[in-house]
């Protein structure tokens, strides 16, 4: 305290503004009537006569489960983890599939905090977990004989092909012989058609003396 200019009363000395305090640079000087204090700024605590930052993230864990806590000088901040978005001061899952339709080549499935890609039947997911590669069923399942004839790989599937003279059955797998003789004009009018496996033969028949051809039953 000190006398005022009139010398008739004591007034407080503001040690803070007169730089009469002994606070170190990290502290804040606060004046009170007759004394002063050295205090730490918000987010700090006194340690060995100096103000150290308080790591709120480590001590208080103020951020939720789906946010990362980042300590700053005198404070902290919360940042949502990957796959989450801040909504009303909390971190909520957001649908990456709806936000970015190009994330996956075929199908995108949203999951909690993330997403996963899947492929259409006949395709498999590549190591990048985004794009899809065709499965060669003919090679992968060659021991199972998918086709009786020839197996031909096509994108996302396979198809069976038969050799000349055969056609695919109703199951699109087995090969059935084509009876060419049932078709018109495969042989000359005077010939007889004989169906064989995968083909046919035309025979010219000469009747013995005193016989004529039975045109109704020549095939």
Summarize the helices and strands and which ones pair or pack.
Elements: E1 2-3, E2 10-11, E3 28-32, E4 35-39, E5 44-47, E6 50-53, H1 56-59, E7 67-72, E8 75-80, E9 84-87, E10 90-93, H2 96-99, E11 107-111, E12 114-118, E13 123-125, E14 132-134, H3 137-140, E15 150-154, E16 157-161, E17 166-168, E18 175-177, E19 191-196, E20 199-204
Would you give an account of this structure?
By secondary structure, the chain is mainly beta. It has 5 domains: 52 residues, Ribbon (Laminin); 41 residues, Laminin (Ribbon); 32 residues, Laminin (Ribbon); 44 residues, Laminin, CATH 2.10.25.10; 38 residues, no CATH class. Helices cover 5% and strands 39% of the residues. The chain contains 3 helices and 20 strands. Strands 1-2 form a two-stranded antiparallel ribbon. Strands 3-4 form a two-stranded antiparallel sheet. Strands 5-6 form a two-stranded antiparallel sheet. It is rod-shaped, with a radius of gyration of 46 Å. The termini are far apart. 5% of the residues are buried.
Compute the number of strand runs: 20
Coarse morphology? rod-shaped
Rg over alpha carbons? 46 Å
Can you tell me the CATH topology of the largest domain? Laminin
Beta content: 35-45%
H/E element order = EEEEEEHEEEEHEEEEHEEEEEE
Count of helix runs: 3
Query: What's the domain count?
Result: 5
Low-confidence stretches: none
Helix content: under 10%
Q: What gap, in angstroms, lies between the N and C termini?
A: 137 Å
Give the overall average pLDDT: 90
Q: What oligomeric arrangement do these chains adopt?
A: single chain
Main sheet specs? 2 strands, antiparallel
The CATH level-2 architecture of the largest domain is identified as Ribbon
Strand order of the largest sheet: 1-2
CATH class of the largest domain: Mainly Beta
């Amino acid at each position: 305290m000190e006398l005022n200019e009139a010398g008739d009363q004591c007034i407080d000395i503001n040690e803070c503004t007169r730089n009469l305090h002994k606070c170190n640079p990290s502290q804040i000087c606060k004046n009170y009537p007759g004394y002063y204090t050295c205090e730490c700024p918000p987010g700090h605590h006194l340690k060995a006569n100096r103000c150290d930052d308080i790591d709120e993230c480590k001590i208080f864990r103020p951020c939720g489960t789906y946010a990362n806590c980042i300590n700053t000088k005198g404070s902290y901040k919360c940042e949502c983890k990957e796959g989450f978005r801040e909504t009303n001061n909390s971190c909520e899952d957001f649908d990456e599939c709806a936000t970015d339709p190009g994330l996956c080549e075929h199908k995108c499935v949203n999951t909690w905090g993330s997403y996963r890609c899947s492929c259409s039947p006949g395709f498999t997911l590549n190591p990048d977990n985004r794009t899809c590669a065709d499965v060669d069923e003919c090679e992968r399942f060659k021991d199972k004989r998918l086709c009786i004839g020839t197996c031909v790989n096509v994108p996302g599937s396979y198809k069976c092909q038969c050799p000349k003279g055969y056609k695919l059955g109703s199951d699109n797998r087995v090969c059935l012989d084509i009876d060419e003789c049932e078709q018109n004009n495969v042989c000359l009018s005077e010939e007889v058609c004989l169906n064989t496996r995968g083909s046919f033969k035309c025979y010219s028949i000469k009747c013995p003396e005193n016989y004529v051809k039975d045109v109704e039953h020549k095939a």
